[in-house]
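Hypothesis: this fold can be encoded by more than one sequence.
Test: take the C-alpha coordinates below, design a sequence, compare later.
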Protein backbone atom coordinates (compact mmCIF):
# COMPACT_ATOMS: atom_id res chain seq x y z
CA UNK A 1 0.00 0.00 0.00
CA UNK A 2 1.57 3.23 -1.22
CA UNK A 3 0.50 6.03 1.11
CA UNK A 4 2.43 8.60 -0.94
CA UNK A 5 -0.41 8.37 -3.49
CA UNK A 6 -2.66 10.24 -1.04
CA UNK A 7 -2.43 13.93 -1.95
CA UNK A 8 -4.40 16.65 -0.20
CA UNK A 9 -5.55 19.61 -2.27
CA UNK A 10 -4.34 22.98 -0.96
CA UNK A 11 -6.77 25.11 -3.00
CA UNK A 12 -9.83 23.09 -1.95
CA UNK A 13 -8.77 23.17 1.70
CA UNK A 14 -8.15 26.91 1.68
CA UNK A 15 -11.54 27.56 0.09
CA UNK A 16 -13.28 25.52 2.79
CA UNK A 17 -11.45 27.37 5.56
CA UNK A 18 -12.29 30.74 4.01
CA UNK A 19 -15.93 29.80 3.49
CA UNK A 20 -16.35 28.47 7.03
CA UNK A 21 -14.76 31.68 8.35
CA UNK A 22 -17.62 33.70 6.87
CA UNK A 23 -20.20 32.31 9.28
CA UNK A 24 -20.37 34.78 12.15
CA UNK A 25 -17.56 36.93 10.70
CA UNK A 26 -17.07 40.28 12.41
CA UNK A 27 -15.66 43.49 10.87
CA UNK A 28 -12.33 43.09 12.69
CA UNK A 29 -11.73 39.66 11.11
CA UNK A 30 -12.78 37.63 14.12
CA UNK A 31 -15.96 35.60 14.50
CA UNK A 32 -18.94 35.52 16.81
CA UNK A 33 -20.21 31.95 16.61
CA UNK A 34 -21.21 30.58 20.01
CA UNK A 35 -22.47 27.01 20.09
CA UNK A 36 -25.93 26.57 18.52
CA UNK A 37 -26.32 30.31 17.81
CA UNK A 38 -27.77 31.23 14.41
CA UNK A 39 -24.26 31.61 12.95
CA UNK A 40 -23.22 28.22 14.31
CA UNK A 41 -26.38 26.53 13.02
CA UNK A 42 -25.80 27.97 9.54
CA UNK A 43 -22.14 26.93 9.58
CA UNK A 44 -23.13 23.41 10.64
CA UNK A 45 -25.60 23.10 7.75
CA UNK A 46 -22.94 24.30 5.31
CA UNK A 47 -20.41 21.83 6.69
CA UNK A 48 -22.89 18.97 6.49
CA UNK A 49 -23.28 19.79 2.81
CA UNK A 50 -19.50 19.69 2.32
CA UNK A 51 -19.38 16.31 4.06
CA UNK A 52 -22.11 14.93 1.81
CA UNK A 53 -20.34 16.31 -1.26
CA UNK A 54 -17.32 14.30 -0.10
CA UNK A 55 -19.41 11.12 -0.06
CA UNK A 56 -19.89 10.85 3.73
CA UNK A 57 -23.13 9.51 5.22
CA UNK A 58 -24.15 12.30 7.59
CA UNK A 59 -26.30 12.05 10.70
CA UNK A 60 -26.84 14.08 13.85
CA UNK A 61 -27.09 12.52 17.28
CA UNK A 62 -29.48 13.63 20.04
CA UNK A 63 -27.03 16.25 21.41
CA UNK A 64 -26.37 17.73 17.94
CA UNK A 65 -22.98 16.14 17.33
CA UNK A 66 -22.66 15.80 13.54
CA UNK A 67 -21.26 12.46 12.45
CA UNK A 68 -20.10 11.82 8.89
CA UNK A 69 -19.11 8.28 8.02
CA UNK A 70 -17.34 6.51 5.20
CA UNK A 71 -17.81 2.74 5.05
CA UNK A 72 -15.28 0.52 3.31
CA UNK A 73 -16.54 -0.91 0.05
CA UNK A 74 -16.27 -4.44 1.36
CA UNK A 75 -14.99 -6.48 4.26
CA UNK A 76 -14.84 -4.20 7.26
CA UNK A 77 -18.29 -2.55 7.23
CA UNK A 78 -19.48 -1.94 10.77
CA UNK A 79 -16.01 -2.57 12.23
CA UNK A 80 -14.60 -0.11 14.80
CA UNK A 81 -13.90 3.19 13.09
CA UNK A 82 -11.02 5.62 13.03
CA UNK A 83 -12.58 8.97 13.89
CA UNK A 84 -11.31 12.51 13.50
CA UNK A 85 -13.07 15.65 14.53
CA UNK A 86 -13.16 19.04 16.17
CA UNK A 87 -15.66 21.88 16.62
CA UNK A 88 -17.41 24.66 14.70
CA UNK A 89 -18.47 26.75 17.71
CA UNK A 90 -16.14 29.53 18.82
CA UNK A 91 -15.38 31.64 21.87
CA UNK A 92 -16.92 35.13 21.93
CA UNK A 93 -15.08 37.36 19.42
CA UNK A 94 -12.63 34.57 18.70
CA UNK A 95 -10.68 33.57 15.62
CA UNK A 96 -11.49 31.63 12.47
CA UNK A 97 -9.27 28.61 12.93
CA UNK A 98 -9.80 27.23 16.44
CA UNK A 99 -11.81 24.07 15.70
CA UNK A 100 -12.40 25.04 12.05
CA UNK A 101 -8.85 24.06 11.03
CA UNK A 102 -9.34 20.57 12.44
CA UNK A 103 -12.65 20.04 10.67
CA UNK A 104 -11.58 21.36 7.26
CA UNK A 105 -8.28 19.44 7.40
CA UNK A 106 -10.14 16.25 8.41
CA UNK A 107 -12.57 16.68 5.53
CA UNK A 108 -9.71 17.28 3.11
CA UNK A 109 -7.93 14.21 4.46
CA UNK A 110 -11.04 12.10 3.81
CA UNK A 111 -11.36 13.45 0.27
CA UNK A 112 -7.68 12.83 -0.42
CA UNK A 113 -7.87 9.29 0.93
CA UNK A 114 -10.82 8.52 -1.34
CA UNK A 115 -9.12 10.24 -4.28
CA UNK A 116 -6.06 8.01 -3.91
CA UNK A 117 -8.07 4.95 -4.84
CA UNK A 118 -6.62 3.04 -1.89
CA UNK A 119 -9.51 1.14 -0.28
CA UNK A 120 -10.08 2.27 3.30
CA UNK A 121 -9.25 -0.46 5.79
CA UNK A 122 -12.11 0.29 8.22
CA UNK A 123 -14.92 2.84 8.59
CA UNK A 124 -13.79 6.45 8.94
CA UNK A 125 -15.77 9.08 10.82
CA UNK A 126 -15.60 12.84 10.90
CA UNK A 127 -17.30 14.28 13.98
CA UNK A 128 -18.32 17.89 14.63
CA UNK A 129 -18.66 18.07 18.41
CA UNK A 130 -21.28 20.32 20.00
CA UNK A 131 -20.19 23.21 22.23
CA UNK A 132 -16.51 22.48 22.73
CA UNK A 133 -15.93 25.98 24.06
CA UNK A 134 -18.46 25.89 26.88
CA UNK A 135 -20.83 28.59 25.65
CA UNK A 136 -23.60 26.92 27.61
CA UNK A 137 -21.85 25.45 30.62
CA UNK A 138 -18.58 23.57 30.98
CA UNK A 139 -17.18 22.81 27.50
CA UNK A 140 -16.31 19.65 25.53
CA UNK A 141 -20.03 18.99 25.81
CA UNK A 142 -20.52 16.85 22.70
CA UNK A 143 -17.67 14.44 23.34
CA UNK A 144 -18.53 14.09 27.03
CA UNK A 145 -22.15 13.40 26.11
CA UNK A 146 -20.96 10.78 23.64
CA UNK A 147 -19.18 8.90 26.43
CA UNK A 148 -21.66 9.43 29.26
CA UNK A 149 -19.49 11.94 31.11
CA UNK A 150 -21.96 14.78 31.63
CA UNK A 151 -22.49 15.97 35.19
CA UNK A 152 -25.96 15.55 36.61
CA UNK A 153 -28.55 17.87 35.06
CA UNK A 154 -25.86 19.53 32.98
CA UNK A 155 -28.16 20.20 30.05
CA UNK A 156 -30.35 22.28 32.37
CA UNK A 157 -27.43 24.31 33.76
CA UNK A 158 -25.91 27.53 32.48
CA UNK A 159 -23.04 29.79 33.49
CA UNK A 160 -25.41 32.12 35.29
CA UNK A 161 -28.72 33.93 35.30
CA UNK A 162 -30.07 34.75 31.86
CA UNK A 163 -27.52 32.66 29.96
CA UNK A 164 -28.44 29.81 27.64
CA UNK A 165 -28.60 26.22 28.77
CA UNK A 166 -28.23 23.26 26.46
CA UNK A 167 -31.72 21.82 26.81
CA UNK A 168 -33.19 25.07 25.50
CA UNK A 169 -30.78 25.25 22.57
CA UNK A 170 -31.51 21.63 21.65
CA UNK A 171 -35.24 22.34 21.78
CA UNK A 172 -34.74 25.35 19.53
CA UNK A 173 -33.24 22.95 16.98
CA UNK A 174 -36.27 20.68 17.23
CA UNK A 175 -34.56 18.07 19.39
CA UNK A 176 -35.95 16.49 22.53
CA UNK A 177 -33.39 17.24 25.29
CA UNK A 178 -34.67 14.30 27.36
CA UNK A 179 -33.15 12.01 24.72
CA UNK A 180 -29.59 13.18 25.41
CA UNK A 181 -28.40 9.82 26.73
CA UNK A 182 -29.15 8.28 23.32
CA UNK A 183 -25.97 10.01 22.10
CA UNK A 184 -23.86 7.68 24.26
CA UNK A 185 -21.67 5.34 22.23
CA UNK A 186 -19.60 2.36 23.21
CA UNK A 187 -15.82 2.83 23.18
CA UNK A 188 -15.68 -0.44 21.23
CA UNK A 189 -17.07 1.44 18.22
CA UNK A 190 -13.75 3.29 17.97
CA UNK A 191 -10.38 2.02 16.92
CA UNK A 192 -8.72 5.41 17.32
CA UNK A 193 -9.44 9.13 17.51
CA UNK A 194 -7.34 11.87 15.91
CA UNK A 195 -7.78 15.63 16.19
CA UNK A 196 -5.88 18.26 14.24
CA UNK A 197 -5.85 21.68 15.87
CA UNK A 198 -4.00 24.96 15.74
CA UNK A 199 -1.43 25.03 18.53
CA UNK A 200 -2.96 28.16 20.11
CA UNK A 201 0.48 29.04 21.47
CA UNK A 202 3.74 30.40 20.03
CA UNK A 203 6.09 27.41 20.08
CA UNK A 204 5.77 25.99 16.54
CA UNK A 205 5.56 29.41 14.91
CA UNK A 206 8.61 30.71 16.73
CA UNK A 207 10.67 27.64 15.76
CA UNK A 208 9.37 27.46 12.17
CA UNK A 209 8.22 23.86 12.67
CA UNK A 210 5.00 22.92 10.82
CA UNK A 211 3.80 19.99 12.95
CA UNK A 212 3.39 19.44 16.67
CA UNK A 213 2.88 15.88 17.89
CA UNK A 214 0.89 16.20 21.08
CA UNK A 215 2.02 14.08 24.02
CA UNK A 216 -0.62 15.08 26.53
CA UNK A 217 -3.34 17.59 27.37
CA UNK A 218 -3.64 19.54 30.61
CA UNK A 219 -6.08 18.70 33.38
CA UNK A 220 -8.82 21.34 33.58
CA UNK A 221 -11.04 22.44 36.45
CA UNK A 222 -13.90 24.84 35.79
CA UNK A 223 -15.83 26.45 38.60
CA UNK A 224 -18.68 28.93 38.88
CA UNK A 225 -18.33 31.43 41.71
CA UNK A 226 -21.24 33.42 43.03
CA UNK A 227 -20.92 36.30 45.49
CA UNK A 228 -24.00 37.71 47.19
CA UNK A 229 -24.16 41.22 48.62
CA UNK A 230 -27.04 43.61 49.12
CA UNK A 231 -28.40 45.71 46.30
CA UNK A 232 -29.27 49.26 47.27
CA UNK A 233 -29.33 52.90 46.22
CA UNK A 234 -25.94 54.12 45.02
CA UNK A 235 -26.65 57.70 46.03
CA UNK A 236 -28.15 57.36 49.46
CA UNK A 237 -26.36 54.42 51.08
CA UNK A 238 -23.27 55.52 53.04
CA UNK A 239 -20.10 53.61 52.19
CA UNK A 240 -19.83 52.12 55.66
CA UNK A 241 -23.32 50.57 55.43
CA UNK A 242 -22.85 48.77 52.13
CA UNK A 243 -22.48 45.12 51.30
CA UNK A 244 -21.21 45.51 47.74
CA UNK A 245 -20.95 42.15 45.94
CA UNK A 246 -18.57 43.51 43.33
CA UNK A 247 -16.13 44.82 45.91
CA UNK A 248 -16.06 41.34 47.47
CA UNK A 249 -15.64 39.80 44.00
CA UNK A 250 -12.71 42.09 43.26
CA UNK A 251 -10.99 40.75 46.38
CA UNK A 252 -11.59 37.20 45.13
CA UNK A 253 -10.13 37.98 41.69
CA UNK A 254 -6.86 39.28 43.12
CA UNK A 255 -6.64 36.56 45.79
CA UNK A 256 -7.13 33.81 43.18
CA UNK A 257 -4.47 35.35 40.95
CA UNK A 258 -2.02 35.56 43.87
CA UNK A 259 -2.76 31.97 44.92
CA UNK A 260 -2.15 30.54 41.46
CA UNK A 261 1.06 32.53 40.95
CA UNK A 262 2.32 31.34 44.31
CA UNK A 263 1.98 27.72 43.12
CA UNK A 264 4.55 28.33 40.37
CA UNK A 265 4.73 28.30 36.57
CA UNK A 266 3.12 24.88 36.05
CA UNK A 267 -0.41 26.03 36.79
CA UNK A 268 -2.56 28.80 35.33
CA UNK A 269 -5.83 30.25 36.56
CA UNK A 270 -8.25 32.68 34.92
CA UNK A 271 -11.41 34.44 36.00
CA UNK A 272 -12.58 35.25 32.49
CA UNK A 273 -16.24 36.00 32.77
CA UNK A 274 -18.11 38.13 35.27
CA UNK A 275 -21.70 39.25 35.48
CA UNK A 276 -22.76 42.00 37.86
CA UNK A 277 -26.40 42.05 38.99
CA UNK A 278 -28.44 44.00 38.42
CA UNK A 279 -25.77 46.12 36.69
CA UNK A 280 -26.49 49.85 36.67
CA UNK A 281 -24.83 53.20 37.42
CA UNK A 282 -27.00 53.78 40.40
CA UNK A 283 -27.42 50.39 42.07
CA UNK A 284 -24.96 48.86 44.52
CA UNK A 285 -24.18 45.42 43.04
CA UNK A 286 -26.29 42.79 44.81
CA UNK A 287 -24.77 39.72 43.19
CA UNK A 288 -21.78 38.80 41.05
CA UNK A 289 -21.32 35.60 39.04
CA UNK A 290 -17.95 34.63 37.62
CA UNK A 291 -16.17 31.73 35.99
CA UNK A 292 -12.85 30.29 37.16
CA UNK A 293 -10.70 28.12 34.89
CA UNK A 294 -7.69 26.31 36.42
CA UNK A 295 -5.23 24.21 34.38
CA UNK A 296 -2.13 22.20 34.97
CA UNK A 297 -0.44 19.04 33.76
CA UNK A 298 -0.16 18.20 37.47
CA UNK A 299 -3.39 17.21 39.18
CA UNK A 300 -1.72 17.84 42.56
CA UNK A 301 -1.31 21.53 41.72
CA UNK A 302 -4.97 21.81 40.76
CA UNK A 303 -5.92 20.18 44.04
CA UNK A 304 -3.74 22.63 45.98
CA UNK A 305 -5.24 25.61 44.14
CA UNK A 306 -8.77 24.35 44.67
CA UNK A 307 -8.19 23.89 48.40
CA UNK A 308 -6.70 27.33 48.87
CA UNK A 309 -9.41 29.04 46.81
CA UNK A 310 -12.15 27.28 48.78
CA UNK A 311 -10.50 28.59 51.95
CA UNK A 312 -10.49 32.15 50.56
CA UNK A 313 -14.16 31.88 49.63
CA UNK A 314 -15.10 30.57 53.08
CA UNK A 315 -13.69 33.77 54.55
CA UNK A 316 -15.97 35.95 52.38
CA UNK A 317 -19.62 36.08 53.48
CA UNK A 318 -22.01 35.29 50.64
CA UNK A 319 -19.38 33.62 48.40
CA UNK A 320 -20.04 30.16 46.93
CA UNK A 321 -18.32 27.86 44.46
CA UNK A 322 -19.85 25.19 42.22
CA UNK A 323 -17.60 22.86 40.22
CA UNK A 324 -18.79 22.64 36.62
CA UNK A 325 -16.03 20.41 35.28
CA UNK A 326 -13.03 18.54 36.59
CA UNK A 327 -11.17 16.81 33.78
CA UNK A 328 -8.07 14.76 34.27
CA UNK A 329 -5.18 15.42 31.97
CA UNK A 330 -4.95 13.00 29.05
CA UNK A 331 -2.01 11.18 27.56
CA UNK A 332 -1.89 10.63 23.84
CA UNK A 333 -1.23 7.09 22.60
CA UNK A 334 2.50 6.48 22.04
CA UNK A 335 1.88 4.24 19.04
CA UNK A 336 -0.25 6.87 17.33
CA UNK A 337 2.36 9.51 18.13
CA UNK A 338 4.90 7.26 16.43
CA UNK A 339 2.69 6.87 13.36
CA UNK A 340 2.21 10.63 13.07
CA UNK A 341 5.98 11.01 13.28
CA UNK A 342 6.47 8.29 10.69
CA UNK A 343 4.11 10.21 8.41
CA UNK A 344 6.17 13.39 8.94
CA UNK A 345 9.40 11.52 8.22
CA UNK A 346 8.06 10.07 4.98
CA UNK A 347 6.87 13.48 3.78
CA UNK A 348 10.08 15.26 4.79
CA UNK A 349 8.29 17.42 7.35
CA UNK A 350 9.85 18.48 10.65
CA UNK A 351 7.93 18.03 13.87
CA UNK A 352 8.15 18.58 17.57
CA UNK A 353 6.58 16.76 20.47
CA UNK A 354 4.71 19.01 22.85
CA UNK A 355 2.01 19.28 25.48
CA UNK A 356 -1.31 21.08 25.05
CA UNK A 357 -2.31 23.81 27.47
CA UNK A 358 -5.63 24.15 25.65
CA UNK A 359 -8.49 21.72 26.14
CA UNK A 360 -9.87 19.66 23.25
CA UNK A 361 -12.47 16.98 22.60
CA UNK A 362 -9.46 14.69 22.11
CA UNK A 363 -9.17 14.73 25.93
CA UNK A 364 -12.34 12.74 26.26
CA UNK A 365 -11.45 9.66 24.23
CA UNK A 366 -8.50 8.41 26.34
CA UNK A 367 -10.72 8.45 29.43
CA UNK A 368 -12.64 5.63 27.73
CA UNK A 369 -9.49 3.79 26.70
CA UNK A 370 -9.63 4.83 23.03
CA UNK A 371 -6.15 5.34 21.53
CA UNK A 372 -5.95 9.03 20.69
CA UNK A 373 -3.54 11.37 18.92
CA UNK A 374 -3.36 15.07 18.11
CA UNK A 375 -1.61 16.94 15.32
CA UNK A 376 -0.89 20.62 15.96
CA UNK A 377 -0.24 23.17 13.24
CA UNK A 378 1.26 26.60 13.98
CA UNK A 379 -0.81 29.73 14.41
CA UNK A 380 0.83 33.06 13.70
CA UNK A 381 2.56 34.50 16.77
CA UNK A 382 0.68 31.97 18.85
CA UNK A 383 -2.43 34.16 18.93
CA UNK A 384 -5.71 32.39 19.61
CA UNK A 385 -9.12 33.03 21.18
CA UNK A 386 -8.93 36.50 19.63
CA UNK A 387 -9.72 38.04 16.22
CA UNK A 388 -6.02 38.07 15.26
CA UNK A 389 -5.87 34.26 15.21
CA UNK A 390 -4.30 33.29 11.90
CA UNK A 391 -2.54 30.44 10.07
CA UNK A 392 -0.49 29.88 6.92
CA UNK A 393 -2.34 27.91 4.22
CA UNK A 394 0.83 25.93 3.66
CA UNK A 395 0.83 24.72 7.27
CA UNK A 396 -2.83 23.69 7.05
CA UNK A 397 -2.01 21.71 3.90
CA UNK A 398 0.90 19.94 5.60
CA UNK A 399 -1.28 19.21 8.62
CA UNK A 400 -4.07 17.74 6.49
CA UNK A 401 -1.56 15.59 4.63
CA UNK A 402 -0.02 14.25 7.84
CA UNK A 403 -3.49 13.60 9.22
CA UNK A 404 -4.53 11.65 6.10
CA UNK A 405 -1.32 9.63 6.15
CA UNK A 406 -1.63 8.91 9.88
CA UNK A 407 -5.25 7.74 9.50
CA UNK A 408 -4.15 5.24 6.88
CA UNK A 409 -1.11 4.12 8.86
CA UNK A 410 -3.34 3.44 11.87
CA UNK A 411 -5.88 1.71 9.63
CA UNK A 412 -3.36 -0.56 7.97
CA UNK A 413 -1.48 -1.10 11.20
CA UNK A 414 1.78 -0.14 9.58
CA UNK A 415 4.23 1.32 11.90
CA UNK A 416 7.28 1.93 13.70
CA UNK A 417 8.48 2.49 17.22
CA UNK A 418 7.81 5.93 18.60
CA UNK A 419 10.79 8.23 18.56
CA UNK A 420 12.21 10.55 21.21
CA UNK A 421 10.85 13.99 21.86
CA UNK A 422 13.53 15.73 19.80
CA UNK A 423 12.82 18.06 16.92
CA UNK A 424 13.53 16.32 13.64
CA UNK A 425 14.29 18.43 10.61
CA UNK A 426 14.37 16.78 7.21
C1 LIG B 1 -10.58 25.52 24.52
O1 LIG B 1 -10.28 26.26 23.61
C2 LIG B 1 -9.98 25.70 25.80
O2 LIG B 1 -8.81 25.34 25.97
O3 LIG B 1 -10.63 26.29 26.66
MN1 LIG C 1 -10.98 27.31 21.83
MN1 LIG D 1 -10.55 24.32 19.89
Amino acid sequence: MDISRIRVNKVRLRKDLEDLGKFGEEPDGGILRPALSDADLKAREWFKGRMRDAGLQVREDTVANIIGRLEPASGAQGAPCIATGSHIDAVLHGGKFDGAAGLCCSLEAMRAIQGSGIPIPCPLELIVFTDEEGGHYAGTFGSRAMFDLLVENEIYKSKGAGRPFMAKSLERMGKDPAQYTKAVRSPSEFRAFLELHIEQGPVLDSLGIPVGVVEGIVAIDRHLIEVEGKAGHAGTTPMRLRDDALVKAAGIVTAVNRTVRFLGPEIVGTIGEMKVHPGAFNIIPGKVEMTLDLRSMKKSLLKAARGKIREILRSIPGARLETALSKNGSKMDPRIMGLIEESCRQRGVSWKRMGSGAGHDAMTFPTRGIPTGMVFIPCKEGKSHCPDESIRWKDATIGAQILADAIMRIGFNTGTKSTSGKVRAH
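The chain has eleven helices and 15 strands. Residues 91, 98, 133, 385 surround manganese (II) ion (ligand 2) (CB under 6 Å).
Hypothesis status: open.
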